[in-house]
Amino acid sequence: MPILEKIDHEKKRKVKRKTRKNPSNNGQKIIHKVNWKDVTPGDALSLLVDSGEGGFISLEEIDGDTCWEPELGVADDVYSGDMDADYSLEKPTKRRKVNTIREENGPFMESSIGISDNHFEVKDMKSSGKKKKISIRRKEVDIEQFLVTGSGGVPNSAEGTLVSGDGGSVQQVTDSLKLQESDDENAVDLSEWAELRLHPLLEKSLAALGFTEPTPIQRACIPAAAHQGKDIIGAAETGSGKTLAFGIPILQRLLSEQDKWSQATDELKYEGNTHKDLVVKDEFCHLRALIVTPTRELALQQICDHLRSVAKFTNIKVVSLVGGMSTQKQQRLLKGKPPIIVGTPGRLWELMSSGESHLHELQYLSFFVLDEADRMVEKGHFHELQSIIDMLPQSNKHVPELLSAGADDTLLNYDNMRDPETKYSTSIHNELRVPRKRRQTLVFSATLSLPPGFKKKLKTGVRLSQSVSGKAEYSVAYLSEKAGVSHKAAVIDLTSTAIVAAKLEESVLECREEEKDIYLYYILKVHGRGRTIVFCTSISALRRVSSILRFLQVSCWSLHAQMQQRQRLKAMDRFREKDDCVLVATDVAARGLDIPDIRTVVHYQLPHAAEMYVHRSGRTARALKDGCSIALISPSDKSKFSVLCSTLPKMKMLSKFPVNGTYLPAIQKRVALALQVDKASRRHSQLKAKESWFSLHAKELDLDFEDVKEENERENSNNANLKSLQRELHELLKQPLEPNAFSHRYITGAGITPLVATQLQDYASFRSNSHAGRSPMRGQKGRFVVIGQEQIEPLKALQNSLSLLKRPNTSSKIVNPKY
Ligand SMILES: Nc1ncnc2c1ncn2[C@@H]1O[C@H](COP(=O)(O)OP(=O)(O)OP(=O)(O)O)[C@@H](O)[C@H]1O
Fold it and tell me: Which domain of life is it from (predicted)?
């Protein structure tokens, strides 16, 4: 928290004047938002330097020049900037100038394009060598092509070259060149992907996404699924990249088939070439991959978006079919015959059973994917999923040995298919010598347990016994069997005993039930940096929590199953847009929700099942990043907690989230007031509803005028009470959140950053020098500046407290033995 001291008003004015000179300098924003206090720091301060005990900031003099303001967002009374990125006292490095070509130069300013571009490149070549040379050549080619197209070609993103077009302007070309410059600057080394032998268009999109290497599950699944044609039963921790572990093999297979078809038809050289068109159309206008996933958010925002971003340089369309969205629109999309469909079982089955022809051409299906398979057997999904599976052509399930070999050249026996069109297609296949592979089934989950002898059972066709298939832990095995997974399937289980991501720090915070709001606000206000998801089990709790947070001016959004799909998507989009924002959600958001940089997950209410705890926590620490989860545990959570402990023994050993008690009185005051406002506001809504009912029906029902008047008076007094409470809360929130025992001697206990440590060191040495009569600052314009202690995010607070505990002579326990 910012603790700022001793600044006289004249100096403050100086700062104001200086900062005003530089409009890009936002220092004044911070300086004037802060409540300055006169405190004289004591010499004891020097003891704190590097002690790791906490933060203490002193400010002696502010100088406009040294106080260059990093771009911090000031949220109310706390700093919300990113320390690592923004607290540097260096001025920002100037952005390199990129030569631009003004529109008025006209579309044929050849030399300006060449000169400006080359000039830029030559400069760059000196600094970064070979890679840049390659990029120069590429640019020169592009520019030449631009000149050839003449009329203002625009870059074709699919090919990475310029094609003619009539709407393109020089500005567009310039923009594209600028884009390339930035691409080149971040040239991505894809050598780690080389062994996976991916199609160049996929490599291109991986480079654009900045994915330098496959994740372990991708490394294991892609060769087996994409090159050996195997079925996969795959499991890996949350956020480990499972979507692309099945997405890349699908795209790879479709792209390489497209290439083979193209090559084969070219070789045949039919006269008039109509045959080629027919075949290619026939082959690529069918449903080739059907991906089924349990939730709408997963289908829309994780899988569909993800596949589209990897397929962006190809012509392969990906369409999502989920409930809550317009059926008519989805039917229109199906008319475009997308080869890849991602859907939830309910809407998929609704469209299938309504006779959508594209969804009936399942004989062309090359991939059937079940994502988050363990959840599919839950109530509400299974019936439809079963019906979808029943629609799949049977031929795949008992393919003769030869055909199920899974090798690249495996041909599917089409004779047992009734569709004459398919036979026609098969004959073309033979004619063109393009082998058609069997359908592959890919089943993915974050958790996996297979019953003993499962693979043997698949081979012999012996069904899982009812006692086994009914068990929740064997749901993936059960579904795999139902979906017709081959006995040659590769079972890739990368789940560790921890199941959650390695870089996830889990913790618990014990409190009473009625204190949960206080601790939640503590986490969000004292630490909360970056995106946070707060999980509630019930919608009523979610509503209460979000309402209180809003009254406390915490930027937050809600997500639960009773919201309309449109609202759900809007909430997610808003949540994504802001770096420092809270999503209060029920378990609809627990699975598969992939929002970048969620820093913290708070379990406000514990989930009923361990699996859900794992998925909730897995919303952070994704894609090899780190993150923190905090479970608020009250005595009433005892039974749920013991369920979690029985499945996840590590729960008993989780670290305690550190709480700095000095903030609690101030936090408590705010939360108590917010609760009162919330209560009064609910009452207000109730009275309002009642009042309008009264005034509507008073005459009709012959109600006493006095009753109506009384009701109005009650409403008015409640309204006045609500307004006064709101004012009071508003005033309170304007104050900085200070620790109870705030004085120059106190430390926050939340840890200090390297910058603050250095500044404290400077300060200590300054003081000791000036005591010795040698002021090092004499004659200097500004001495030194400390803005305040950074708000540190929960993960760092937790890590700091753990590192303190690791020190010798520390007696605090990490374990959580209470429950
Ligand atoms: N090779 C890669 N390199 C870097 N990031 C990647 C890579 N592959 C995927 N990602 C990113 O990792 C994040 C998590 O991926 P994904 O959603 O596929 O995980 P998941 O295992 O399906 O998670 P969950 O089980 O929670 O659904 C995504 O944001 C994705 O963009």
Answer: Eukaryota
